[in-house]
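If you are new to this repository, start here. Below is one unmodified record pulled from the training split, so you can see the exact layout before writing a loader.
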Amino acid sequence: MQSLAPGLALCLAIAALAIIVRNMTGIAALNPVVVALVVGVGIGAVIGRPAAIKPGISFAVRPLLRAAIVLLGLQVTLGMLASLGLGALVLAVLVVGLTLPFTIWLGQRMGVDPKLSLLIGTGTAICGASAIVAANQVARGTDEDVTYSLAVITLWGTVTLILFPYLAGFMGMNPYSYGLWAGASIHEVVQAVGAAAAGGPEASQSGTVMKLARVFLLAPAVVALGWWVARSHAGQAGQAKAPVPWFAFGFLALVVLGSTPLMPGFAADASRFVVPIMLAASVAALGLQTDLRALKARGAAPLLLGLASTIFIALLALVGVSVI
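And here is the target side for that same chain:
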């Protein structure tokens, strides 16, 4: 604990600052995870990575992050998913199951690094920053890959947050359908919920539950990605074995347990308070380790890939909602 304290305390302090900034401004685009990332990158560029903080940073990037993903399962229940109906649940599976491979495929055509394409696709298809950092536990991308992916997802998610209410009005969508569309296609949970709320209470409810259905798919997606990554490297010695993402199974276990009377009622509320702090601290650690020169070398192609992926999931979700 003594060796972990300096780095972990720095990451938690950055997380606290990020949450204070978000609460003081009330701006949905200022996700604490994103603010923590920016602050972490800035501090890392100034002070570098002193040996004293490295153990705590490593702890925040892996064990703390995985614990946060497990606790995220308390925010989704099987009852919430069932309330959507079969059609909406099928739509949630389709937008995740098609957007992710489409982004990886298009990234290959655009010359984007496969791991970076995978992270952008995961963030677009599932739940933004949480999905990116969870997927990287099996993808093994660099800190710069994660940082760039978070920036791309934040940018285009914010654009959709602003545009969707106007587009829904232009298309004459009813509140329920608009909520489903926002929940099925906007990246971050806070962005999707914020956009859906612009359509009124009915849109807010359908949008929130639809978004949580995509969050539920985080665990199966991470397991599938682990298998896919292992298969992609099957020809390389020592890399053919699929990593076992135990934290994903922990996530599913808490979803099931949280759907029963065994889980105390305050547990979900507690997770909504604790998980953002843990995620922000983990991403702050990634920011502290990020090399700005390596980040710049990625170029503009991943940014355009994020735009194409965002348009794809928005159109796919719109078609699905119209069919429902």
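Two things worth knowing about this chain: The chain has a mean pLDDT of 85. The CA atoms of residues 101 and 259 lie 31 Å apart.
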